[in-house]
Write a structure and sequence with these properties.
Helices cover 23% and strands 30% of the residues. The chain is built from 9 helices and 26 strands. Strands 1, 2, 3, 4, 5, 6 and 19 form a 7-stranded mixed sheet that branches. A 5-stranded parallel sheet has the order 8-15-9-10-11, with helices on one face. Strands 22-23-26-25-24 form a 5-stranded antiparallel sheet. It holds the Pfam family MDHAR3-like_C.
Length: 434
C-alpha cells in the first residue's frame, strides 16, 4: 500500500485529540499537515456524556450534539470542521505497530503512515473480567463503558431488558454514575464493590456515607466488602446470575463492570521511557524520544505544585495537556518558550440531582463542613484536606459556579490553617473570602 506522510500525526481519537486539533488550528496549522488516526468510527467527542445523558430515557444526548469542544463551552467540532481546516480524520483505523525510530505507524489493514512529529493520545482502556479469567465473564449482557460503541450496546440492553435487574460491579465513577442512570431507567439496581465505601480513592468515609445513603433512598442496593467471582448464563448465553465471593448470588438481566482502566502504552513498549504505568514526559509533554509527545490518560507528567510525577485519568487533564503539547510544539518550531504545565488536580461528577467537585490532593486531616442532611431540599457540604498546616485539597457538593471557583482557588493557593475549629465553623465562607 502507498505511504501517507504528514508533518503532524495525533494517534488516538478521544477528547485529547479533539482539543489538540483545535489548538493546532489556532496556531495556524496548514492544510494537509495534520492527521488524526482513530480506531473509532466517529470524530472526537466528549467522553463523559456517555455515562450520563446518553443513557437517560428522555432528552438523551446523541452525536453530533457532544462532539468536542462543547464540554468546556467551546465550538462544536463537527466532521466538516476538520475538512475546512485541512485536517485529515482517518477513522476506523487501528494502528498495530509503531516504530518511533523510523517515525512509522502501520494499521491493521497494512496502511503505512509517516510523520515528523507524533502526539500519542491513545488514552486508556477498561479492565475486563475476562482478563482475570472470571468464570462466565464472557456471557452476553456483561457490559463495559469506554467508547460510544459500548454506550450503544448498553442502550440496546436497557431497551431489551426493560425494568429488569441490573448489577453494577465497581463502586467508583462508573459504578456511581451508571447506577444512577439505570435507576432512572427504572431498573432494579444493585452495586457491588470490595472496598469499605464507594469512591475510595477520592472520598472519605464521611463523604461516602452521604452518597451511599442518598443512593439507598433512591432504591439502589449496595453490597460492600465482596467481589463478583463468577456469572451464570441462560440457554441463550445471556447473563442471569452474579456469584459473589461471600457466597451470595444476585439475579441479573444485565451487568455493567467498572473496575478501573489501564493506559494504552503497548505500542510503545521498549521504545519510550515509562513511569508509574504511563509514558513519562516533561512539563511540555515531550517524551524521551525526539519529536514524540504524549497527552491525556496515557501520560505520567510532572505535577508542579506537588513536585511529583503523576498520571491523571480525567477529561480536564486530557483537554489541557493536549493544548499544552501543541503550544509547546509550535513554540519550539518558532524558537519561543511556553510556561511549564502547572495543573491543579480536578474531579467532578453528576448523578441524580447531585453534583460535586474536588480540587487538589485528598491527603492529610479532613475538615467536614456544611449541610449533608439527606432531608434538606438541596444539601450543600464539603471538606478540606489539611497537611503540614495548609489546605491541600477541597471538595464541595451542590456548589454554585462561583463557590466551585472559590474551593479551586483554596486548593491552588494552599492557605495556612491556624485554627481547625474556626475553619470548621467558617466552612465554605472561608474559601469564598480567599
Amino acid at each position: 500500500m502507498a505511504e501517507k506522510t504528514f508533518k503532524y500525526v495525533i494517534l488516538g481519537g478521544g477528547v485529547a485529540a479533539g482539543y489538540a486539533a483545535r489548538e493546532f488550528a489556532k496556531q495556524g496549522v496548514r492544510p494537509g499537515e495534520l492527521a488524526i488516526i482513530s480506531k473509532e468510527a466517529v470524530a472526537p467527542y466528549e467522553r463523559p456524556a456517555l455515562s450520563k445523558a446518553y443513557l437517560f430515557p428522555e432528552g438523551t444526548a446523541r452525536l453530533p450534539g457532544f462532539h468536542v469542544c462543547v464540554g468546556s463551552g467551546g465550538e462544536r467540532l463537527l466532521p466538516e470542521w476538520y475538512k475546512e481546516k485541512g485536517i485529515e480524520l482517518i477513522l476506523s483505523t487501528e494502528i498495530v505497530k509503531a516504530d518511533l525510530a523510523s517515525k512509522t505507524l502501520v494499521s491493521a489493514a497494512g496502511e503505512v503512515f509517516k510523520y515528523h512529529i507524533l502526539i500519542v493520545a491513545t488514552g486508556s482502556t477498561v479492565f475486563r473480567l475476562t482478563d482475570f479469567g472470571v468464570q462466565g465473564a464472557d456471557s452476553k449482557n456483561i457490559l463495559y463503558l469506554r467508547e460510544i460503541d459500548d454506550a450503544d450496546k448498553l442502550v440496546e440492553a436497557i431497551k431489551a431488558k426493560k425494568n429488569g435487574k441490573a448489577v453494577i460491579v465497581g463502586g467508583g465513577y462508573i459504578g456511581l454514575e451508571l447506577s444512577a442512570a439505570l435507576r432512572i431507567n427504572n431498573f432494579d439496581v444493585t452495586m457491588v464493590f470490595p472496598e469499605p465505601w464507594c469512591m475510595p480513592r477520592l472520598f472519605t468515609a464521611d463523604i461516602a456515607a452521604f452518597y451511599e445513603s442518598y443512593y439507598t433512598d433512591k432504591g439502589i442496593k449496595i453490597i460492600k466488602g465482596t467481589v463478583a467471582v463468577g456469572f451464570a448464563a441462560d440457554a441463550n448465553g445471556e447473563v442471569k446470575e452474579v456469584k459473589l465471593k461471600d457466597g451470595r448470588s444476585l439475579e441479573a438481566d444485565l451487568v455493567v463492570v467498572g473496575v478501573g482502566g489501564k493506559p494504552l502504552t503497548t505500542l510503545f513498549k521498549g521504545q519510550v521511557e515509562e513511569e508509574k504505568g504511563g509514558i513519562k514526559t516533561d512539563a511540555f509533554f515531550k517524551t524521551s524520544v525526539p519529536d514524540v509527545y504524549a497527552v491525556g490518560d496515557v501520560v505520567t507528567f510532572p505535577l508542579k505544585m506537588y513536585n511529583d510525577l503523576t498520571r491523571v485519568e480525567h477529561v480536564d487533564h486530557a483537554r489541557k495537556s493536549a493544548e499544552q503539547a501543541v503550544k509547546a510544539i509550535f513554540a519550539s518550531e518558532q524558537g519561543k518558550a511556553v510556561e511549564e504545565y502547572d495543573y491543579l488536580p480536578y474531579c467532578l461528577s453528576r448523578a441524580f440531582d447531585l453534583s460535586w467537585q474536588l480540587y487538589g490532593d485528598n491527603v492529610g486531616d479532613t475538615v467536614i463542613f456544611g449541610d449533608n442532611n439527606l432531608t434538606s431540599a438541596k444539601p450543600k457540604f464539603g471538606s478540606y484536606w489539611i497537611k503540614d498546616g495548609k489546605i491541600v485539597g477541597a471538595f464541595l457538593e451542590g456548589g454554585s459556579p462561583d463557590e466551585n471557583k472559590a474551593i479551586a482557588k483554596v486548593a491552588k493557593t494552599q492557605p495556612s490553617v491556624n485554627n481547625v475549629e474556626v475553619l470548621t465553623k467558617e466552612g465554605l465562607s472561608f474559601a469564598c473570602k480567599i
